[in-house]
Amino acid sequence: MPNMISTGRAEIEWRSESTQKPPRAAVYLSHANAEQVLKAAHAHTATVWTGDFHNAKQVLAAMKKRVRKPGSRNQHADIQTAFHSHRMRQAQQSRVLNMLAVEIGCGFSLELPRAPDVAGALADVYGAANDEPFLLPLNRLLGFIGAHEWHKKGIVLPCLEAAIHVPFGVFSPLRGEYLDLIAQAPLPADIQTAFDIGTGSGVIAALLAKCGVARIVATDNNPKALASARANLERLGYGAQVEVCAADLFPEGQADLIVCNPPWLPAKPTSAVETALYDPDNAMLKGFLSGAAQHLTPGGEVWLIMSDLAEHLHLRAPGFLAQCFAEAGLESVGQLDTRPKHAKAFAPDDPLAFARSRETTSLYRLKAALQP
Q: Which residues form the Methyltransferase small domain (predicted)?
């Protein structure tokens, strides 16, 4: 059911692509300053901008300066509490910033002075054009526009010697160190088949194809990811080698190699985009490991790519993975490690810098354990 809110004139749909509750009401204004919009936001009322688009962006920037001022930190809080407090602050800030909105007309039109053409960006997110107007947070719209530009431009990956094009709503391989691990890992002897579980953009399947694996099945349960993977693999010339299919985890049959890069943090996502980052109660991780052995050919390998950031945040016990391997009937035959190279890992003002600075990303090579 769509979220409908009152504007005083009529009811209109509110979209935000998150689990946040919609505002209770909305008012249309052509001029306002950041303080006015924030005051309305704290009263659960959205401001729908009807004036100049660039002025709206300036107001949003001023709102961000006020909302994102560093707050006092509890130096005595434990690490896990600090993480959850950080996420709560992020959610609160996002909710307030999302209270500055615009009305999207039929056909994804935005009828504001100096407004860009947003139809392509919104089609990337929603697919078919809308028949009824809806309200959309300006902050979300700007994110959609940026994601659309990245989708068109693509992300050049040295290990692939090519670009991957990723739409909004699909995990983007901006952090490429885990792909370098896959490129470095020795393939099982006489490998013919591989499964890429949770393929997302199809980047891992493409890398396996480039490395010479003859037949690959890539799975995902996100329709956007499936479409993105198919488009990327066709563009790269691997369409004949890779079959992309819808599945929660495994396809039918067995493979010589099964690869998975699941979400790394066991926490609840607050939007569709975050499902690639957060895995509540380690559900996908456990499901993958518990089913992997039965889908392996004799002598085959499982490659699990994981970061230890959750351990540094005290969200996962240090021995948790080893216990999961044993319970799933898997044993380690090798491990490759790398340190992060992304900007956040070196940002001292990041609230989670204490954990990111110690993070290691690993590729665990696993085989079915011999039965006693």
A: 191-308
Neighbouring residues of 104: CB distance < 8 A, sequence distance ≥ 6: 110, 118, 122, 130, 133, 134, 135, 136
- Crossing angle (nearest 10°) for helices 34-42 and 79-97: 110
Nearest CA among 91, 90, 172 for reference residue 351: 90
State the Cα–Cα distance between residues 41 and 57, nearest whole angstrom. Answer: 17
Cα separation, 246 vs 306, in Å, equals 23
Distance (Å, whole) CA 272 – CA 116: 25
Q: What is the pLDDT of residue 198?
A: 96
The residues, ordered by sequence, that sit 6+ positions from 39 with a Cβ below 8 Å of its Cβ are none
Phi, psi of 219 (to 5 degrees): -120, 155
Of 237, 235, 232, which Cα lies nearest the Cα of 220?
A: 232
What pLDDT sits at residue 70? 61
State which amino acid sits at residue 187.
L
CA dihedral (122, 172, 277, 85) positive or negative: negative
Beta bridge partners of 366: 302, 332
In 3D, which of 247, 307, 255 has the Cα closest to residue 277? 307
Per-residue pLDDT at 76: 46
For 340, list phi and psi in degrees, rounded to 5.
-65, 150
Neighbours of 44 (CB within 10 A): 14
Residues 6 or more apart whose Cβ sits within 8 Å of residue 346: 357
Q: What is the pLDDT of residue 65?
A: 94
pLDDT averaged over consecutive 10-residue blocks of the chain (372 residues)? 80 89 94 96 96 98 88 60 84 93 97 97 92 96 95 94 94 88 94 97 97 97 96 97 97 98 88 82 95 96 95 92 96 94 70 81 93 57
Q: Which residues contact 328 (CB under 8 A, 6 or more apart)?
A: 289, 290, 292, 293
Q: What is the dihedral of CA 105, 111, 116, 119, to 10 degrees?
A: 20
